Amino acid sequence: MTIDHIISIKPRQSWHLTILRRKAILFCEQNFPRPMSSYMTGLLFGHLGKDFDEMGSIYTSLGIMHLFALSGMQVSFFVDFLRKGLFRLGFRRDIVNLFQIPFSVFYAGMTGFSISVIRSLIQKVLANFGIKHLDNFSLTLFLLFLFMPKFLLTTGGTLSLLFAFVISMFGERFEKLPKYRKLLAESLTLSLSVLPLLMLYFHNFQPFSIFLTFVFSFLFDVLFLPGLSLIFLLAMATGIMLTQINIIFQWLEGLIKLVDSWYHYPLILGKPTTFVFLAMLVVIGFLIDQWRNQKVRYSLLLILLSLFFVTKNPPIPSITMGDIGQGDSIFLQDQFNRRNILIDTGGRVQFGARKKWQERTSSAMADKTLIPYLKSLGVSEIDTLVVTHTDEDHMGDLLAVVNQIKVKNILTSEGSLNHT
């Protein structure tokens, strides 16, 4: 084989939104220290890297991971900032409304075309043309089905649309309230309304998340989002990196870890059946609508609590054998969740030592199989966990299970403890 000549290929400058977003994320990760860079890429561009997995699991256990889900808060900040700036420059309202459309496309691209961002941007644009409340929601839903017909197949799309629907239905009731009472009322209403869907997808709920959302929404909305935006723009324009701000995010993560040590385990409610799920949605809808009627309110609350109880405590005892990889896991559940016994947790077997370049961060198998199943049955505490022997494929995911579900007793044989 002979080589006639070698051509040097130079990278072409591209203004494609996906490439611009990737360059912005790399700029943040390479020029700002962690964890500041993670918060910057998460809040500005909707990207959280692998290095945020540990803190991400803590935010998730506290029920406030949605603070990083780009939606109405971030959209309102950037769109309102743009509109106020253009008004100050003397542009007419109709010109500003038209200019908002290409800006919305640009911002959607810079955030990875997230369904929650697109939904919020569409609603913002429609509101400029006098389309509000349920009319706004209905037209937004129609446009999403037209251009993104599979959006409801994602958890984020479903939750985002449910939030938007509840706000469209009941938002007018909160408009006359003082600012902080309005925020608290909206948080309580949204948390209650979305609870059946959280049970269906995640099978648990963190009650303390209502208070944490109320507190941290202020921090993220008023301090972090504007501050990180200014720091990013300053760094891009002048090369000045205000890395000293990183200590604030280190303190924040220390506080989050402290709170997690107090309220680590969420309230596991189980997975409702289709009938119970629909009944919950209907009852919650009537409950919010008839909240001022005391007799109706207490009756609906009693019905709702009964539905929660049936989901949390299955009336029929069961024995389940689960496929956990190379072995099997056996779960015995007594009537009404009075006693639970789990035999083996499964795990991933590794053959031989890995080279450094082969090492990677991976989640436990139980996080995707065993733990979601136990939570779907309403299991918040395992009375006895039996480890038949200490091979990785039988007890490798033990710590993952204990980290998410309380375990009273762990039993194994003396020979297994001496096994090497």
UniProtKB/TrEMBL annotation:
It is a multi-pass membrane protein. SUPFAM superfamilies: Metallo-hydrolase/oxidoreductase (SSF56281). The chain crosses the membrane at residues 58-82, 103-122, 142-171, 183-202, 208-225, 232-252, 264-288, 295-311. The keyword Transmembrane applies. Pfam families: Competence, Lactamase_B. It is found in: Cell membrane. Keywords: Cell membrane, Hydrolase, Membrane, Transmembrane, Transmembrane helix. One of its GO terms (cellular component) is plasma membrane. Residues 43-291 form the ComEC/Rec2-related protein domain. Residues 325-414 form the Metallo-beta-lactamase domain. Coiled coil: none annotated. The keyword Membrane applies. InterPro entries: ComEC_N, Competence_DNA_uptake, Metallo-B-lactamas, RibonucZ/Hydroxyglut_hydro. GO terms for molecular function: hydrolase activity. PANTHER family: DNA INTERNALIZATION/COMPETENCE PROTEIN COMEC/REC2, RECOMBINATION PROTEIN 2. This is MBL fold metallo-hydrolase. It comes from Pseudolactococcus chungangensis.
